[in-house]
Amino acid sequence: MSDKRTEIGEIGEFGLIDHLSEKIIIKHNSTLRGIGDDAAVIEAGDHVKVVTTDLLLEGVHFDLSYAPLPHLGFKAVAVNVSDIAAMNAIPKQITVSIALSNRFSVEAVDALYSGINAAAEHYGVDVIGGDTTASRSGLVISITAIGDAKKEQLSFRSGAKVNDIVCVTGDLGGALVGLQILEREKQVYLANPEMTPELDGFQYVTGRQLRPEARMDIIHELREMEVVPTSMIDVSDGLASELFHICKASGVGVTIYEDKLPIDKQTFDTAVELNLDPITCVLNGGEDYELLFTIDQKDFSKLEKHPDIHFIGHVTKAEDGKLMVTKSGTVVSLKAQGWKHF
Ligand SMILES: [Mg+2]
């Protein structure tokens, strides 16, 4: 080891993942896909298994002063199910590992697990194992999810082709705006504990932050309509960042249209109230857990009338860049800011 010291912040989370994965050598033919997508893919007879894992840390990913334990348990499962969905696979099993400080009572653990079990029921997954240990620095939740698909049903980040249509589900930016409201009310409460948090009128956005849904409904509908997205990713770090991942993995560019970006009215109004640009929230807000995918033009007519799938742009050649056409018709370059924990 040399004396050189590189701060993790210099290369960022994605840089760190690239740096670590460079040194990994795949030894088994059954490992069809390792690091680099929403989930790894393992051969299993005439099907494949997809595997994803996620780590949630108190003080980094959640704040127990406003995240109710049942919601937190539900969210911990949903974010993993979302990564299985992003592969166009069906979640089947999860393992749940937790590290607890002595601050936690059995009742508190029960509250956390009530959310985990509710999500397991909701998404039809079995809790098949895990680990429990002591923590000296707050609550840690790690969940691994295993999903199932036929090989030809999988959607990777790398399959987008020029002229494909870019689709996104639901609406975006709500989770970030909800987080800002929760933080604001926390500061008000800390300054004056007599004050009750003012969350009336912010239920949608705070709900997007505290108890997100994985879009398994969309995955089932795509199957019914016999549409396999050419590429797919879930929106965990922000739309712009996810578009960059698809473009990099697929070797393509993209053009999206500002007036096509889906934003909920409460998200828009609350962003304005908070002096945030609503479009910046849509492009760079994380944790919406919607699905971003591309489809071949031949499939457009099958999805055209879907009330919750929005067609926001198209795939271009890599050299055309990653662009957004604004409402006024100006073309701007997209920037992937994403969620920065480091
Ligand atoms: Mg993902």
Automatic annotation (TrEMBL):
Record keywords, A-Z: ATP-binding, Kinase, Magnesium, Metal-binding, Nucleotide-binding, Thiamine biosynthesis, Transferase
PurM-like N-terminal domain ranges (all copies): 36-147
Pfam families, alphabetized: AIRS, AIRS_C
Domain PurM-like C-terminal: 212-325
UniProt-listed Enzyme Commission number(s): 2.7.4.16
SUPFAM superfamilies linked to this entry: PurM C-terminal domain-like, PurM N-terminal domain-like
Pathway(s) served: Cofactor biosynthesis; thiamine diphosphate biosynthesis; thiamine diphosphate from thiamine phosphate: step 1/1
Binding site for Mg(2+) 3: D38, D83, D234
Protein residues bound to Mg(2+) 1: T53, D54, D131
One GO term of the biological process aspect: thiamine biosynthetic process
Molecular-function GO terms, alphabetical: ATP binding; magnesium ion binding; thiamine-phosphate kinase activity
Binding site for Mg(2+) 5: D237
Reaction catalysed by this enzyme: thiamine phosphate + ATP = thiamine diphosphate + ADP
Binding residue positions for Mg(2+) 4: D38, T52, D83
Chain positions recorded as substrate binding sites: H61, E287, W339
Family indicated by similarity: Belongs to the thiamine-monophosphate kinase family.
Physiological role: Catalyzes the ATP-dependent phosphorylation of thiamine-monophosphate (TMP) to form thiamine-pyrophosphate (TPP), the active form of vitamin B1.
NCBIfam families referenced in this protein's UniProt entry, alphabetically: thiL (TIGR01379)
This protein's name: Thiamine-monophosphate kinase
Organism, as annotated: Aquiflexum gelatinilyticum
